Amino acid sequence: MNGALFPRDRAVVAPGAVHVPGWLSARRQRELVDACRGWARGPVPLRHTVLPGGGVMSVRTVCVGRHWQPYRYSRTADDVNGAPVAPFPGWLVELGREALVEAYGEHQGYTPDTALINFYDGAARMGMHQDKEERSGAPVVSLSIGDACVFRFGNTQTRGRPYTDVELESGDLFVFGGPSRYAFHGVPKVLPATADPATGMNSGRLNITLRETGLAG
Fold first, then answer.
1. Which among 20, 27, 41, 106 is placed 20 to 30 Å from 53, CA to CA?
2. Mind giving me the DSSP string for 7-63?
3. How many structural domains is the chain composed of?
4. CB 36: neighbour CB atoms within 10 A?
5. At 160, which CATH number?
C-alpha cells in the first residue's frame, strides 16, 4: 500500500489497458458491496466454480445478467441450481459507461449486460487467462474493493512473460480493451489486512468485472 505520502498515478499499462487508482469513492464502494451481498444470496448463490477437468477455483463467484460457467454464458445456472440469474440493472450499465469515459474519454456506446463478481479470501488466486467467451470485443471494466492484490497483466499470445504486475487497491478501476482486450491476466497474490472497513469490506477482495457479451436473448 502506497499511502497518502506516495500517491499512485493513473497509468496506461499497455495499449488500451488503463489503471485509474481510487476511482470509486468510499460511499460508492459501500453501495456496490451491499448490492453484491444481495446477489450472493441468490437466486444463484456465491459458489466455487468447478472446472471441466474437475479442479475447483479458489475464488467464489456470483453472476448478474448472464451466468458464466467454463466456458460459456447462459441465462440459467445449470451447473449450480438451475435458477435464472439476477437481472443486470440499468445503474450498472451507467457505471460501466462512466468507467469508459474515465479511461478513454468516451463510452463508445458501451452496454455491458453481464457482471462476474469474484470474492477472494487471503489464500485465493486467479491463474492467467483470457476473457474470450464474449462475442463482443468491447472493453472489460474491472472494479476492486477490499484487500489489495497483485494483478498480473500480460500479453495476448502467452500466459508467460512479458507481463506487468500492478497493485490494485480498494476503489481502483482497471479497463482493458482495444489491442489489450484479449490479454492474459490473473491475480497471483492477495494482500491480506489491507481492506478499509469504511468501504464495507473488513477482509477479502471483491472484484466486479463488467462485460458486453454480444449475445442475443
1. 41
2. ----EEEETTEEEETT-S-HHHHHHHHHHHHHHHTSSS--EEEEPTTS-EEEEEEEE
3. 1
4. 21
5. 2.60.120.590
Q: How many residues does the chain have?
A: 217
Residue whose C-alpha cell is 487467462: 129
Locate 169 and state its grid cell: 487497491
Kindly state whether residue 2 falls inside one of the protein's structural domains: no
Domain membership of residue 5 (yes or no) is: no
**Residue 6: pLDDT over 80:** no
Query: For residue 3, what pLDDT band results from cuts at 50, 70 and 90?
Result: very low
Domain encompassing residue 201: 11-211
Question: 59 near 116, Cβ under 8 Å?
Answer: no
**Spatial distance between the Cα atoms of 133 and 51, rounded to a whole number of angstroms:** 15
The pTM assigned to this predicted structure is 0.95
For residue 79, give the 3-state DSSP assignment. Answer: coil
pLDDT tens per residue across span 164-216: 999 999 999 999 999 999 999 999 999 999 999 999 999 999 999 999 999 98
Within-domain flag for 52: yes
Residues 6 or more apart from 92 whose CB is under 8 A from it? 64, 112, 115, 210
Backbone φ/ψ region at 65: left (φ over 0), alpha (ψ -120 to 50), beta: left
pLDDT category, 99, cuts 50, 70, 90? very high
Could you say which DSSP state residue 95 is in? H
Q: Report the pLDDT value the prediction gives residue 2, as an integer from 0 to 100.
A: 40
Rounded Cα gap, residues 189 and 129, in angstroms: 15
